[in-house]
């Protein structure tokens, strides 16, 4: 069995048409047909059934496709890892980040990095904190941008910053004239929060627990944009950072009279995973850009 046969099989399986697959592969149809027939002879079973002009995978074909695609991904990943080892200024970095960071920090950080390293590409994954750490633990991601609450001694973490959290109010709220407000004043006020999958949820809960406050939570959303929209519509108030996305809503912002009202954000990576030269390049850039934010 040759690797090329597997590549040809995947193409035919996806397109369900021999002629279209041959065109995509820049191959003659007879040559492609011979390759598929040879693969079927070696396996001892047919992999396709005809359905009109199309070729449809049978149960053996579906089984083989699942394994073939997995093998193909592994080979491509190995090729990329070798390329990353050869050149520290060319390759791919896999990066996962929290939903809350997608509107502002990610574009800013990666934009400035790519200005310097034009041949390094990123594979991006938007995820929850738990999903992010699972990806890193399973070596499916090189780095994550996250809050620190779920970290343990298996991970390194480098602090990037601590954006301030403000009280977001609907326009014309009775507190709109305030220059600042205490957390205790939120005790009975309808509050729009975030689900536990969002890192900001943990930070906000810590702030309330420290003050022994039980917020009057009327709704928990998945995204900051949803929270901002509900606040704007008068459903309640919220604690939010002034990110680009949420500032598109008609909100009034009041400073919170608590120095701990901040959201720690940093880069996380696994301790026992050897870093490729490309990954080292990214970390050196992070440490240079945020020299006073050591974890």
TrEMBL record:
Residue ranges occupied by any HTH lysR-type domain in the UniProt entry: 1-58
Keyword terms of this UniProt record: DNA-binding, Transcription, Transcription regulation
Q: What is any one of the record's Gene Ontology cellular component terms?
A: cytosol
In Pfam terms, one family for this protein is: HTH_1
Superkingdom: Bacteria
Q: Which InterPro entries match?
A: HTH-type_LysR_regulators, LysR_HTH_N, LysR_subst-bd, WH-like_DNA-bd_sf, WH_DNA-bd_sf
MF terms (GO), sorted A to Z: DNA binding; DNA-binding transcription factor activity
Query: What is the similarity comment for this entry?
Result: Belongs to the LysR transcriptional regulatory family.
PANTHER family hit by this protein: HTH-TYPE TRANSCRIPTIONAL REGULATOR BSDA (PTHR30419:SF28), HTH-TYPE TRANSCRIPTIONAL REGULATOR YBHD (PTHR30419)
Name of the protein this chain belongs to: HTH lysR-type domain-containing protein
